[in-house]
Every structure is written in structure tokens, then in C-alpha cells.
Amino acid sequence: MERDRKPSGDGWRLLVAVALMASITLAACGPAAGQARGIPDNYPDKAIELVVPYAPGGGSDNMARTITAILQREGIFTKTINVVNREGGSGTVGQTYVAGKKGDNYTIMTMTSGIITNEFVLDTDITYRDFTPIARLALDQLLIIVRKDSPFQTIEDLINAAKATPDGVSWGGTGLGGEDSLLLAQIEKEAGVQLNYISFDSGGEVQAALLGGHVDVASANPNEVLGQIEAGEIRALAVAGPERLGQLPDVPTLKEKGINAIYEQTRGILGPPDMDPAAVEFWAEIFRQLSESEAWQTEFIEGNMLRSGYLGPEDFRKAMDEESATVKELIEEMGLGSN
Amino acid sequence: MIDLLQNLLHGFAVALTPTNLLFALIGVFAGTVIGALPGIGTVVGVSLLLPLTFGMDPTSAIIMLAGIYYGAQYGGTISSVLANIPGESATVVTTLDGYQMARQGRAAKALGIATIGSFIAGTFGVVMVTLLSPLLTRIALQFGPPEYFALILLGFTAISAIGGRSPVKGLISVTVGLLLATVGLDVMSGRPRFTFGQDWMLDGFSFLVVAIGLFGIGEILEGMMTPGGHPVMQASPHWRDALPSAADWVRSRWAIVRGTIVGFIVGILPGAGATLASFIAYSVERKASKHGYEFGKGAIEGVAAPESANNAASAAAMIPLLTLGIPGSGTTAVLLGGFLLWGLRPGPLLFTEHPDFAWGLIASMYIGNVMLVLLNIFAIPLFASALRVSYPIQASFIVMFAVVGAYALSNNPIDVLFVGAFGLLGFIMKRLDFPAAGLILGLVLGPLAEQNLRRSLTLSHGDWSIFFTRPISGALMVLAITALLWPVVRSQIIERWRGGVEPEPEPEAGLTDGD
């Protein structure tokens, strides 16, 4: 940038003139062309790019690949969808890429709650408001777990112990500002306790620390620990969602136990900024059909122990606004705010 | 014991079906290629092939993917030895002596001993997985944050083995590595550090970008300045050239044993992994070997030990995955994702609920290691022949691989610029005799050390005694501190013994100053 100011003479002026003209022309044509273009009758007339802003093998990647497989198999959408992983920077690298595709009707992106929390925790300019909401698909659940020989038989035992010795009960989770720590902050606030949060790199490390007795309690996604629960190595004290899980009918919700904490992580689909309303409608309908399909409900929702929760574009926007407000409040209480 | 044998035989019956043999072969072949190409790590390789297994029989799928995983540990050696570019993070230390051997025209020997060591270690690892999985799992779970920190501290003592002539320069290199490691997202607080508001910096410096630059490009720049000092190969090598001579074998056999044991122990611990194992094995070997002074100048033990260690570690990392459903490394985490994709529930019941899957996989690892040793021994002459072309052509190809590899990591052009920048740094460090491997050591172990230190202190509410009051952690701390101070103490003793003519020996004084 600094260097650009230095050159002088006619060449430089000409360049400025050309650049100015070009930008005026673009500015004038942009919206008009966009409106006139709309979407063709045979939309989508070219391949769709489904961007996953996380690495291959993770939860978002798994969702994207299940989506494309089921859409194809069930005949809901049989044209080409290319799944593209653009990982890095806690999702911001891929999100920045999609945010740059203003008005592009051929790119969509997987969304997780990460994009909502990043705004408050990371030093990033990208927020969920930069994108066009298309559909909410599922809600990740969190279980509160202890190992089999833990003195805590119920969630009340845990709360009582935490009340007796503030900061004395250690709680393992992944990352600070992530889902585990937000759930913890909610419980601390609602139950009036203080726990000792230990942040790990991955869910696997948390489980190892719990099984080895290095932390007292942990939170984890149900599908990560169901095997341990079935084998009797780990006991689930409560689920943080609004209702009990189908596979674990005996595990109560926090709410039932009088702790007014609900934390679920959102999974959905977003489009680039200024996506054509007709394209948004088109995809909202495709994802509604996907969400109602038997294959999706068994393979993705039940298989990963999630809660199904389709929302169309408008409702999805409202849900994200609400989640953002909750997260903002919790993060400020945790003293983590980035500003 | 009879049960075990029956289970294993059942596993072999599964793994020896023609389909599964074919998938094992595809896996180990793809793994070798993926490992050999810098930039495409095992994690990426396995992730890319995972979707293809959708709808496949889970047993065939895991046999293929596991083949890629341990096959890559064999393949990663190739570019380390031939081009000084580590294909995998676990093969960084292999470059130290492997590339020197190549410069002396012994590339085939280096690759050969790496293959043989890998085979012995890999097979030993699988035997241990077969026999002792439940017991080893219980031991691994004893490792909490303080134990990890103590172990990593022990890993840092490797600096005395890879540090070159000057301890001060070694410490400076490690410190620079530690500083670079702080860039990016801080896992403990969830906040970005030193990213200057740039989203792409949130991931920090990718280890492979730094390694490709420091070693690969740095070596090319150095090669341009010093004509004549390049790897050369006169005649076309035969596969027999890959087999160690009697003298080489005598020197290497205990190195392989020690590397295997170290690698296996470190590998069982979830999150520690093959890289830490290879560094520790190298430093153990340098201390144990009678030819310690030759390390860094083309000592065959310096290749045998870390290469055995990383293969034993990759076999050991399967233990927590199979017995607990807990991934022990980045790649096994992706494999765990595969379990779910194929409709299997990872966890303690895997062996009883899906014996075909678990025992078929274990049996296939025996078979895969045999395939790999044959594949590699016969392919070594082919790889080593690459050194017969003239150096300018070699160098051009290395630069091309380095650039493509760096870009392929995350499709980010900035990584290519970083490879160039670190190449320049590598060249300068080489000229000034700062050990580049020290920087890598700091970069790799820094985040692990920091996180486990902070985790431990959070657990203990800031009480440092947590590192000494727990038995395993305490023992490891004593070991680490002894290893760090031993050279200083020993030199003092030697001084006294000789009557202390010289008041202060140069290098040791440097170590105390820098501490």
C-alpha cells in the first residue's frame, strides 16, 4: 500500500483514472445486473460448492458428506455438489472465503455455533450476520459425565460438592469460549457454584483425563462416550438439552433437576452475502426435504445422537440472533470478551 | 492365552481373504507414497480417502486406512534421507543423520536400515497390541497433565543430542522455536496471540511449513554456496545395497531395540505421539551409543533409532483407539471418525461386539508390515536412483516439491512465502552453526509443554508441588532434571579427577549461563 503512493507522472494518473472508471462502472452495474440476472429456470445450472470451513474428518465435514450422500441417494437433489474443505483459523478462513462470494448463488457453507462464539472470543471481523441464513438442521447435545467410581451419583451430588468447596471440583472440556465452557458458565450461574475448568485440546484427551481420574467431571458429545457408558466405565449425570436423549432415556435433563441451563450447539447451512432470495428458497426447500427424510433422521440425527430441528431462513436468523445474545452475555460473565 | 490365540487366528482368517489382502496392499502402497511426499501428511491422506470407504465393509475399510497410517511412517523417511525434507513430523530427526548418509553416498543403506528398523518396531508394536492392550491402557490412563508435562520436559533434553557444538546456540534455537509456537490460538484461554488481527494466523506456524523451509530450502541455499557437498550416487544401486553390512547391523541392532521400546511407551499415551517418540529415541541413542560423537555426521544408529521409534509409536497409538475409543494421534482421530461413519461404536465393547473388525485389523497389521518391508527394500534402489541426476536438476525438483507441498497443506499461498522465509532462516542458521532441529523441537513440544503446564497448575490451584508429589510425574521430573544437568555435573567431576587445571570448560559454562 505504502509503495503505491510513490510513483509519479502520467502513467500513475492514467492508472488512477482507469481504476476510478472501473470501480464506478462496477458499482453501477453490480446491483442492477444482480437483480436482472435472478436465477435461471434450470437453477442450479452448474455445480454447487459446499464449503466446509473445518478440516476433513471433523463433525462439519461428516455432516457435509452425509448431506451430499443422502440428497443423491434419496433423489432429493441429484445434480453435482462438491464438498470443499477450507479449514483454518477456527473456521474463519473458510468463512472469509464464502463471505467474499457476494451474490454467488452456487456456493453454500456448513455452519456451527463456532461462527457465533468466534465474534466474541477471536479478533475476527467475520460474523454470522455477514451470511444469508438458509436452514438450521440439527442441534448437538452435551452430556455431563463422571467415571464409574465417582462419588457423584446424581447431578445434585455434584452441585452440593461444588457448593461445599468452591473451585474444588475439576471439570474437563475442550477449549475456552467453546461449547463446554459455555455450558459450564451457565451451570455456575444458575446453580450458584464455582467449578475449576480444565481446558483440553480434543474430546479424546478429555475422556482420557476423566477415565484416569485426573478431572472429576467432564462434558462430551453423546456419540463420543456412548460406548463407554454402555460398557459401564462412564456414567452420565445429566443432558444439557431441552429433552432426554432417545438412547439414554434414564438420564435427566438439567432443567428437570431444577438447573435452568440449556446448551445446544447449532448446525446448519449458510449462503454467501446477498444470495438471491429465489436461490435461498430453493435450498431451504431442499434441506427441508432432507431433514424430513427417513435416511437423514436415522443415519445423521440418530447416528450422531443429535436433536433434529429444521428451521427455514427467517426462523434460523432469529434463532442465531437469540443464540448470539445468550453467548455474548455468558462470555462477558466469564470475562473473556475480546473488546 | 488360548482365547487370545483363537481370536488372533480368527483375525488372520479375516485379514487373509483376497479382498482384505488387496485393501491392505492398496493402503500400505498409498501410505508409502503419501508419506514420501512432503506436505501431504498422514492426517490429510487418511481424511481424503475416508469418504471413499462409505458403504464399504468396515473391516476392509479400516484395514486400508490403517495401512495408509503405518505405511506413511515408512514412506516419510524417503524424502528426509534423499532431500533433507521431512515428509512427516516424526521423521525430522531422521534428516540429521539420514541426509548426511546420503551425502556420503549411503542413501540406500540409510533407507534400508530405516525399513528394517520400522519392520521390527512395527511388528513388536502389533505383538504388544495383541498381548497387552488392556494392561497398557490402564497404564496410559495414569498419565494426567503433570505426567505429560514431565515427559515433555524429558523430550526437551533431546536438545543436548541434536544441539550441535554449542549448547548456547542450541538453547537459542529452542527458544526461537518456543516463541514461534506461541503464535496462534491459545487453547487454554481460547484467545488469539500474536496474530495481528489476521485470521489466517490463528493456526500459528504450521510445523511442516517451517520444517520444509528450514531443512529443504535451507539445504538448497547452502548447496548453492558450497559446490561439491551434495548427495551423489555413482552406480545404479541394487536392492542388496539397501541391506546393512555386518558392521552396520552390529551398530544398529540395539539402536532398533531401544528405539522400539521408547517409541512404544511414548506412543501409547494419547496425544504424545510419534514425533515426541522420535526425538526422545534419538537422544537416548546418542547417549547410549558408543559412536555418540558421530551423530549428526551420518551415524547409522541416528537413523535406526528414531525410525524404529516412530513405527512402534504408530502401532501403540492404536491401543487407546481400540480399547477406549480415544484417539492417540491426529490420524487415529480421523480413523475414529471412520468408526462412526461405518456405524461402529468405539469403546471398550468394540472387541466383544465386533471381533471381526478389531482382530481383523490387528492381523492385517502383521501382514501390512511384511508387505511394507518387501515393498520398500525392492523400491529403495528406485528411490535412491533419484540421486544419480545432477545436483541442479535435483535441487529444482526439491524446490518444486517444497512449494507444492507447502501449498497443499491448507491451500494457502501464504504458506509458500513462509517456506521461502524459513528457507532463508535455515540457511543463515546453518552458516552461523545454530541447530535447525532445535527450533523444530521447540516448535513441536512448545504448545504441548505449555498446555500441560497450565492444565496442571489449574488443577493444583497454582501449587507447583503437583509435579513432584505424584509418583510417575515425580520420577520423570527427576529423570529430566538429571538428564539436563548431567553433562555439567560430569564435566565438573572430570575436572576434579584431572586435578582441575582449567578452571572453566567452555561449552558447559555456556549451558549454565544460558539456563
Report on this model:
The complex is a heterodimer of chains A (339) and B (515). Chain A is of the alpha/beta class and 339 residues long. Chain A contains eleven helices and eleven strands. In chain A, the strands form two sheets. A six-stranded mixed β-sheet of chain A has the order 2-1-3-10-4-11, sandwiched between helices. The longest helix of chain A has 28 residues, at 10-37. The radius of gyration of chain A is 23 Å and the shape is globular. Chain A starts with 9 loop residues before the first helix and ends in a 5-residue tail after the last helix. Chain B has 515 residues and is mainly alpha-helical. Chain B is built from 23 helices and two strands. Chain B has helices at 2-15, 18-36, 42-49, 58-83, 92-103, 107-141, 145-156, 159-162, 167-181, 207-225, 246-268, 273-288, 301-316, 318-324, 330-341, 350-353, 355-384, 391-410, 413-431, 436-459, 466-469, 471-497, 506-514; strands at 184-185, 192-193. In chain B, α10 (207-225) packs antiparallel against α20 (436-459). Chain B is globular. In chain B, 58% of the residues are buried. The model of chain B is unreliable at 502-515 (pLDDT under 50). Classes of the chains: A alpha/beta (339), B mainly alpha (515). Chains A and B meet through α2, α3, β7, α7 and α8 of A and α3, α15 and α20 of B.
Task: Give a quick summary of the entry.
Chain A is of the alpha/beta class. Chain A is 43% helix and 18% strand. Chain A is built from 11 helices and 11 strands.
Structural class by sheet pairing and helices of chain A: alpha/beta
The most extensive interface, with participating residues per chain, is: A-B, 58 and 57 residues
Helix-and-strand structural type of chain B? mainly alpha
What is the terminal separation of chain B in angstroms?
52 Å
Largest sheet of chain B: 2 strands, antiparallel
Read across the widest sheet of chain B, the strand sequence of neighbours is: 1-2
Strand content of the residues of chain A, in percent? 15-25%
Q: Helix segment count of chain B?
A: 23
Shape descriptor of chain B reads globular
- Rounded to the nearest angstrom, the distance between the terminal CA atoms of chain A is 27 Å
